Amino acid sequence: MSTSQFPTRQLYYDGRAQPASSGKTFKSINPSNATPLAEIQVAAHTDIDTAIAAADRAFHSWSQTPPIARARILQKAAALLRERNDEIARVETLDSGKAYTETSTVDVVTGADTLEYYANLVGGGGLNGETTQLREDAWVYTKKAPLGVCVGIGAWNYPIQIALWKSAPCLAAGNTMIYKPSEFTPLHAQTLAEIYTEAGLPAGVFNVVYGAGDVGAYLTAHPTIAKVSFTGQVTTGMKVAGSAAGNMKYVTMELGGKSPLIILPDAELDSAVDGAMMANFYSTGQVCTNGTRVFVPASMKTAFEKRLLEKMEYIRPGPLFDDTTNFGPLSSAVHAEKVAYYIRHGIETDKATLLYGGLGKPQVPKELQDGFWIRPTVFTNCTDDMKIVKEEIFGPVMSILTYETVDEVVKRANTTELGLAAGVFTNNLNLAHRIIDQLQAGITWINTWGESPAEMAVGGWKNSGVGVENGRRGIEAWVKNKSTLVDTNGAVATVFAKL
């Protein structure tokens, strides 16, 4: 007898839920107490083939649907998401382990914003091409065409938000999608598919398959797939990108980071501390853009650490639906073990100074003690060569480093193979802009951290990714361009004429 809280999740393709043929399932687990939430059916290769065939059939009519008609459907889906914000956020909290104070105000809301943004963009002519007059009797015009059947592979830290970041521009541009959520946070996928269907999206335009890396690999290599959009860790992303690009598929990769947060000597202390805490402990540190390398002027170190320690007491782990809880567990047992490994390494091998937190679990009620909790942790007296400073931990672990000059800190900030995000805190905006211009990162902030509105294109440099998501630039990742030159002269210029 199943003790799961939710019904078994089937695949979703051709406009409805469909049973998987593999006979295999996995469990979605509540990270706060390690109890099962639902059984999830794993897609067999034949199931994936069938889902892709449904998406391929749907592509012709959907791609020919006028953009304004596509926009109306997506706008309705955005409205449904907002209407059901709280119920969707409750499931997101149970599945991801994030506090309800976060999922109810950020996750669904920002996803719906992105869907509405792209609906409005294409409905208002955002896919129009350009026309250029070359000379009196010759013109060039361009058109944007959808790619075809695309794959979206989601991540477990912002499940429904990432699903919408991928599907919104994909569908708005006239493509169809096969979406595979992370096996750690799969419960949102069918809900989103059902909302799309209710809003009027034709059968086969948005489809869901479940499974681990082998399912993702099969999707990526499938000959019908035109594009793969992946969010996740760098090593996996490199494999996905290599497989897709090797078969001449389009790719968008949003990968990891080890981002520098630079505090200048004139920065307002409380703002700098608040920014550093948001950049390290929001979502329990499970954010790819986190500013985990916090560079503090040597002259400010004592004051910064004193104020930080005072504010660390405002981090409140506890029941996820309590209005005062602002810190949840990690997403899974395996991830909790990984983060604990880095904390142990920081203490025992790197020999960094443990300023706050460390190994073990924070104080939580008895019914939550089996969950994947970890203490928010701060290391200081860190150096650039430490493992905890160099490698992405993806957990609530802050490393404080000191510096003497601006030139020094910019050079050190850029000494990494990753380039996802970076930020500066200062009252000198002219200097802030000069520093930002030198930082090798695709997403940057000044006197704030973490906000990524639908209007803002985001994407990594170096090993942190390929392409961008969101903003006007984001739609370009889901279309191909066709240029046509029309000559109305009535004669063809030729070098092959009689002398």
From TrEMBL:
Residues 19-30 have a biased composition (Polar residues). Keywords: Metal-binding, NAD, Oxidoreductase. Pfam families: Aldedh (PF00171). It comes from the Eukaryota. It is an enzyme of class 1 (oxidoreductase). It catalyses: an aldehyde + NAD(+) + H2O = a carboxylate + NADH + 2 H(+). Residues 1-30 are annotated as: Disordered. GO terms for molecular function: aldehyde dehydrogenase (NAD+) activity; metal ion binding. Its EC number is 1.2.1.3. The active site is at 254. This is aldehyde dehydrogenase (NAD(+)).
